[in-house]
Amino acid sequence: MPETADIALIGLAVMGQNIVLNMNDHGYVVAAYNRTTKKVDDFLANEAKGTKVVGAHSLEEMVGLLKKPRRVMMLVKAGAPVDEFIDLLVPLLDKGDIIIDGGNSFYEDTVRRYNALKEKGILFVGSGVSGGEEGARHGPSLMPGGAAEAWPHIKAIFQSIAAKVDGGVPCCDWVGESGAGHFVKMVHNGIEYGDMQLISEAYNLLSNGLGLSNDQIAETFTEWNKSELDSYLIEITSNIFKFKDEDGKPLIDKILDAAGQKGTGKWTVLSGLDHGAPVTLIAEAVFARLISSLKDERVKASEVLAGPNGAKFSGDVAKTVEDIRQALYASKIISYAQGYMLMKNVSQEFKWKLNLGGIALMWRGGCIIRSRFLGDIKSAYDRNPDLGNLVLDPFFTTALKKAQDGWRRTVALGATLGIPTPTFSNALSFYDSYRSARLPANLLQAQRDYFGAHTYERVDQPSGKFSHTNWTGSGGTTASTSYNV
C-alpha cells in the first residue's frame, strides 16, 4: 500500500469534512475515515469529488496510507469514543507517530491520555478547534498542546489551514504541554458563554425595557459593531434581528427562550472552583441557561410572582442605549479578565507557561469570540507579560472608568424595571469587590471561628499567624486546623 497521505482524519461529520477540504485546499493529501464507511464513499462522491482526498474503509488501510511519522487527527464525540479510537490505533502505530484529538475533550482527560500514550512512545496532541462549520472550511482558530515533539511535524499543516490576521499571521501556535490546548479551548468556550449572555441581556433591556423594535435593535447592534464592541457575535446578532421567517415576520420572536449547552461552560466554572479563580460571570452565564430551561415553571411563576408595580421606562432612549453599550463593553472586559485569571492560575500550577498575549492573537480570527477587543488584550500583555490582572492594564483601567457611570445606570435600570441582568450585575459586583481594599470577610472569619473554632488572622499580627477566641466564655481554647474555603 503506497504511503501517500500527509495526514489522516477520523470523523466525517460537518467539522471533519470541512477540515479535510481545508487541508486539501492547502495542498495536503488527506486520508479520510469514518466508522460508518458508507459516509466515506458518500463524501468522496460528493463534497470531496475531484480532490486529492483518499478514502479508507478500515483503520488498518488508513494507517497504511500515511507517510511517517504518521499523523492521525480525530474529530469525534468527546469522551468514550476518543478512548476507543486511541485503543484501536495504538497497535497500528509506531513510536514517534502522532495522534491528535481535535474534539471538545475535557482537558483533564487529555492530560490522562497524554501521559498514557507518552509511556507507549506515541505523541499525543489535544487541539482546540474553534470557528464552527465556516471556520473549519475556510480558517479556524487552532489551539494545539501536548507532546511538544509533535509540533514540528504538524505546524505547517495547522498554520496553513488556520485563520489569518494582521497580514497573514496564523491564528494558531503551540499552546503548551499536556492538556494545555484543550484547557485554553475550554476557557474560550466559557468566555463565549459570557459574551452570549451579556449580549442577550442587552437585547432584553433594549426590547422589553426601552421598547425598541427588532429592526431598531438590528440597527443598534450594527452601530455597536463599529465601536469597541466590533466582533463576530455582535455582527451575527444584528443579522439575526434582520432575518424574517417565511411569513415575513421576525424569526427571533418564534424561537423558544430555553437555551441548551454542551458542558464546556460548566467545565470552566468547575475549573475555576478547583483552581481558585473567581470566574463568576461565566458561572452566571451557565446558570442563566439553566434558568431559561425551566420554561414551564417560569410561565407559572410569571402569573403569581409580582415585579415592580407599574414601572416603565421614561428616560432618554438614545442616552440609555449608549449606557447599555458601555455596560456591555465593561462587562465584557470583566469576563475576559476572569478567564485570563483562570488561565494564569492553571498555567502556573501545571507549569504550562501559557503565552497569554499569544492566545489573544490565536482568538483574533476564526473562532466564535473573535473581535477587535482581543487586539487590545494582546497589546496589554505585550506591554507587560507579567500583568497580574487584565483590568490593571492602563488601557482597560481607563476603559472601565469611562464606562462606569453608564454601567451602573444600566444595572439600576434592570433592577428598577424588573428585567434580569445577571451577568451585567455580576460583572459590576466583581469590579467593586476587586477594587475594594477591605471586604466584609473579616465577619465571615469571626463567624467561622465562633461556631467552629476555625481561627482567623489579625491585621495587627504577622501574616500566617492564626488566632482563636473563646467568644462565649464557655468554649475551650482548642482550635481546629486552619483551612481555606
Question: What does the secondary structure layout of this molecule look like, with pairings?
Answer:
Elements: E1 7-10, H1 14-25, E2 30-33, H2 37-45, E3 54-55, H3 59-64, E4 71-74, H4 80-89, E5 98-101, H5 107-120, E6 123-130, H6 132-138, E7 141-146, H7 151-161, E8 164-165, E9 169-170, E10 176-177, H8 180-209, H9 214-224, H10 232-242, H11 264-274, H12 280-292, H13 295-302, H14 317-350, H15 356-362, H16 373-383, H17 394-417, H18 422-434, H19 441-452, E11 456-457, E12 466-467
Parallel strand pairs: 1-2, 1-4, 2-3, 4-5, 5-6, 7-10
Antiparallel strand pairs: 6-7, 8-9, 11-12
Helix pairs in contact: 1-6, 5-8, 8-11, 8-12, 8-14, 9-10, 11-12, 12-18, 14-17, 14-18, 15-16
Shape: globular
Largest sheet: 8 strands, mixed
Q: What Rg do the Cα atoms give?
A: 26 Å
Give the count of helical stretches. Answer: 19
Outline the low-pLDDT stretches: none
pLDDT averaged over residues: 94
Helix content: 40-55%
Q: How many E-type strands?
A: 12
From the N-terminal CA to the C-terminal CA, the straight-line distance is: 60 Å
Q: Give the structural class.
A: alpha/beta
| Beta-strand percentage range | 5-15%
Which sequence of strands runs across the widest sheet?
3-2-1-4-5-6-7-10
Question: What would you say this structure looks like, in words?
Answer:
The chain has 485 residues and is of the alpha/beta class. The protein is 52% helix and 9% strand. The protein has 19 helices and twelve strands. It has helices spanning 14-25, 37-45, 59-64, 80-89, 107-120, 132-138, 151-161, 180-209, 214-224, 232-242, 264-274, 280-292, 295-302, 317-350, 356-362, 373-383, 394-417, 422-434, 441-452, and strands at residues 7-10, 30-33, 54-55, 71-74, 98-101, 123-130, 141-146, 164-165, 169-170, 176-177, 456-457, 466-467. The strands form three sheets. An eight-stranded mixed β-sheet has the order 3-2-1-4-5-6-7-10, with helices on both faces. Strands 8-9 form a two-stranded antiparallel sheet. The radius of gyration is 26 Å and the shape is globular. 45% of the residues are buried. The model has no long low-confidence stretch (mean pLDDT 94).
